[in-house]
Design a protein that fits this description.
Number of domains: 1
Helix content: 10-25%
Bound molecules: manganese (II) ion
Number of helices: 3
Structural class: mainly beta
Distance between the termini: 22 Å
Strand order of the largest sheet: 7-8-9-10-4-3-2-1-6-5-11
Length: 170
C-alpha cells in the first residue's frame, strides 16, 4: 500500500497476482472499521518492482507527486482449503476478492467487492474489512499512521529529503 500525494491525495492498494500488481486507488485509504466501505477505483496493473517504490514522481509524468510506502507485507486467501492462488484468482475474476493480509499496519481478512457501474476496464470496487480480531471499529488508521512503514518519514520529509525519482517510460 502506497500513500500518494498526486493531484489528489489517495492510497494505492497493490496485490500481486499472476506476475503483476493488481492496483486500486483508494481515495480515503483503508479502514479497520467493518462498517466503513471504502471506494477503490481499479487502475491498470503495475509492474512488481513498483511495489517497493518510495520517492518522487516528476511533475507532468503519470502520477506525478510524492509516494510513501505506507504498508507492506504478504497476502493469501483467508480460507485454508484448496490452492490459495487459485482461490484468489477465482475471487478476483468474480469480483468478490477475499484476501487475508499480513502487513505491518493492515492485518486479517478483507474483501474487495466489484461494483456493476463505471468503466468496465477500470471498475469501481469497495474495500471492506471483515469482522475479525484485527477489526477496530471507530479507529482511523489513516489519521493515526502518517509515516512511511519503511523510512518512518512523512510525505513532507520524502518531498524535501534525499529521495528516489521514478523514471517512467510511459
Ligand atoms: Mn496513485
Amino acid at each position: 500500500m502506497q500513500k500518494h500525494a498526486a493531484t489528489r491525495l489517495h492510497f494505492d492498494l497493490r496485490l500481486e497476482l499472476d506476475g503483476v500488481m493488481k492496483s486500486w486507488a483508494v481515495p480515503k485509504g483503508p479502514s479497520l472499521d467493518p462498517s466503513e466501505k471504502r471506494l477503490a477505483m481499479q487502475v491498470e496493473d503495475h509492474p512488481i518492482e513498483y511495489n517497493t517504490f518510495e520517492g518522487i514522481i516528476p511533475t507532468g509524468a503519470y502520477g506525478g507527486g510524492i509516494v510513501m510506502l505506507w504498508d507492506r507485507g504478504t497476502y493469501t486467501h483467508p480460507e485454508k482449503t484448496g490452492d490459495p492462488v487459485e482461490r484468489l484468482r477465482t475471487g478476483y475474476a468474480k469480483g468478490d476478492f477475499k484476501f487475508e493480509v499480513h502487513g505491518k499496519r493492515l492485518r486479517g481478512s478483507w474483501v474487495l467487492v466489484r461494483l456493476r457501474r463505471g468503466d468496465p476496464d477500470k471498475p469501481a470496487w469497495l474495500l471492506i474489512k471483515h469482522r475479525d480480531e484485527f477489526a477496530r471499529p471507530g479507529y482511523d488508521i489513516v489519521a493515526a499512521e502518517q509515516t512511511s512503514v519503511r523510512s518512518r518519514r512523512t510525505l513532507e520529509q520524502i518531498a524535501k529529503g534525499k529521495s528516489r525519482v521514478w523514471n517512467s517510460n510511459r
